[in-house]
Amino acid sequence: MEKHVLALQLSQLLGEEFSREWVYSLIETPKQEKMGDMAFPCFKLSPTFRKSPQDLASELAPRLKHDLFTRVQPTGGYINIFLNQSLIAEHTLKKILTEQEDYGKHSFGEGKTVVLDLSAPNIAKPFSMGHLRSTVIGNALSNLAENCGYETVKINYIGDYGTQFGKLLAAYKKWGDEELIRSNPLAELTKIYVKFHEEAKQDPSLIDEGRDWFKKLEQQHPEALKLWKWFKDASLEEFNKIYQLLGIEFDLTRGEAYYNDKMEATVDLLKEHSLLSNSEGAEVVHLDEEGLPPCLIKKSDGTTIYATRDLTAAIDRYQNYTFDQALYIVGHEQSLHFEQIKHVLGKLNFPWAQDVKHISFGMMLQDGSKMSTRRGKTILLEKVLEEAIDRAKVNIEEKNPSLENKEDVARQVGVGAVIFHDLKHDRRNDVEFSLEDMLTFEGKTAPYLQYAYVRAQSILNRGGFEINSGTPALNDEQAWLVIKQLRSFPEIVEKAYKEYDPSKIAKYLLDVAKGFNQYYASVKILNEDNHLDSRLTLVYSFSLVIRKGLELLGIEAPKRM
Ligand code: ARG
C-alpha cells in the first residue's frame, strides 16, 4: 500500500512520462534501518531533468505527504521515507487476521494454466541428485504458481526410452541375474549398465549388440518389450518410495516412450514446413540463423531421438492444456537442447513457442566434478533421505522422547532439511554435495524454521490466543522489524514466482525467523499488560507466514517437535 502511495504521488509530481509502474519498480528498501523504510533513487531521473540527484531529492521530498509517512528526507541522491509504524502495524496485522490462509495469495494467474515438466528420472538408473533438484524446485514453483491463481499440471516425464535401453537389454542378456534384480532393481540394473560400458571399451562388438536390442525394442519384439516393461515398473516402484518420502505427487506420469507412435506426425509437420534437411544421412532442422547447431530429428539409421520426443510432447501438451507457460525444470547442461526445441517450435509457427521456458539449475558436484551414473559416481538419494530421517529421530529421542507421532515428525524434519538445503541456494549455482551440510539441523535450515514455528505455537497456546480476540495495535519499537517483514510476504511470493526463484522464499523465511527471534529475546510476549493480545496477534501472524512459506517450498511444519 505505502509503495503504491509513493509511486502514485511521485509519478503525479514528475509528469506523464513517469508511469506509476515505473516508479514503483524502482522503490528500494534501505539496507540500514536508520535510513528509513523506503527509498527512491533520484539518479534514475537525472538524465531527463538535467539536475543533480541531490537537488531532485531535495525538491521532491517536501512535496510527498501522506498519513502513512512520518518523515520524508532527502539523503544523498535518495528520497528516504519513514513510515507511520502504528498505522502500518495495525493495517498489517488486520490484513493477516482477515485473510488468514489467503494471506500472500495473488490472482494474476487466474484463468491461466502452467504446465511443469519436473523430476523426470531415467528408468533403470538411480534417482540422482539432479533429479532431486528438478523435483523440489519444480514442486515449489508449482506451489507458487497455484498460490498466484494458476491452474498447474505437474508432469513427470520419465526417461524410459532411447538407445541406452538397447545397451541395458544387451547387458541383461549377458550378465543379468533375475533374482538379484528383483530384490534390488535400480542398483543391480545400474551395475550391469556400468559393466556394459566398461567391457565395451575392450570389446566394441557389444555396442552392436546394444544397437540390435534397441532395434528389437523399436519393433516391439516380445522379449525386448517384456524386459523393458519389467525394468520400467520396478524403477517406478522405487521412485515412488522417494516421492512418498518427499510428499510430492504428480498430475501425470508419462514417459518418453508414450510419444513413440506420435513422432511420425511431428516429422511430417516438419516436412510440410520444409524444415527438414538431410545431413550425412540424418534428418536435421538447421538453426544457423539462430546461431545454433542443427537440431537432430532422425538419426541415419532412422531412429528418432530425445529432441523429436520433446517436440512431440510439447505439441501434445499444448493440445491438451492450452498452457500459458510450459516450464521445464531441467539442469543447465540441457540448455542448448531446450533452445533448439523452442526455436524449432517457433519455426513451426506455433505462437506459444515463446511460452516454453527452460528453468535451468546448476549441477550437484562431487569433489568439484559432475556426478555420473556411467562412472558409477552416484549417491543414492533414498539413502540420504533415510539418513536424514534417522538423525531427526535421534534428535527427538534426546530432546522430546514423549512426543506423539514421532515417526511423522522425524520425516517432516529430516526431509524438510534436505529440501530446504537445495532451495535456499540460487537454483542457477552449482552445489557441492555435502551430506553433512544437507543433514545439519542448525543455522540456515528447515528444522530451524520448523522449530521457530513450533515455539510460536506453544506461545499461542500458553497465551490462550484466539483469532478474534486480537486488537492489533502494536506500537513497540521491537515489533517494527517483524511487522515490516511479515508485510512483505505477498510481494516476495509474487517475485519468487515471476522470477522462478524459490530461494527468495527460503531466504525470506530465514530473515523473518531471525527478526522474530530477536523480538522474542527482547520482549516479554506473555506479560499480562494491555498489549498482550496485540503481541499474540504478532506471534500468530509470524507462525502463519512461516507455515505458509514452508508449505510453498514443499516442507511441512509440525505442530510439535
Ligand atoms: N530424463 C532426462 C534426464 O534425466 C530429463 C528430462 C527432462 N524433461 C524433458 N522434457 N526433456 O536427463
TrEMBL record:
MF terms (GO), sorted A to Z: arginine-tRNA ligase activity
Domain Arginyl tRNA synthetase N-terminal: 4-83
Intervals of motif 'HIGH' region: 121-131
Family annotation (CDD domains): Anticodon_Ia_Arg (cd07956), ArgRS_core (cd00671)
Source organism (scientific name): Halobacillus seohaensis
InterPro entries: Arg-tRNA-ligase, Arg-tRNA-synth_N, Arg-tRNA-synth_N_sf, ArgRS_core, DALR_anticod-bd, Rossmann-like_a/b/a_fold, tRNAsynth_Ia_anticodon-bd
Reaction(s) the record says it catalyses: tRNA(Arg) + L-arginine + ATP = L-arginyl-tRNA(Arg) + AMP + diphosphate
Subcellular location: Cytoplasm
EC nos: 6.1.1.19
Stretches of the chain forming a coiled coil according to its record: none
Catalytic EC class: ligase
The protein's name in its UniProt record: Arginine--tRNA ligase
Family stated for the protein in its record: Belongs to the class-I aminoacyl-tRNA synthetase family.
Domain DALR anticodon binding: 449-561
Keywords noted in UniProt: Aminoacyl-tRNA synthetase, ATP-binding, Cytoplasm, Ligase, Nucleotide-binding, Protein biosynthesis
HAMAP family in alphabetical order: Arg_tRNA_synth
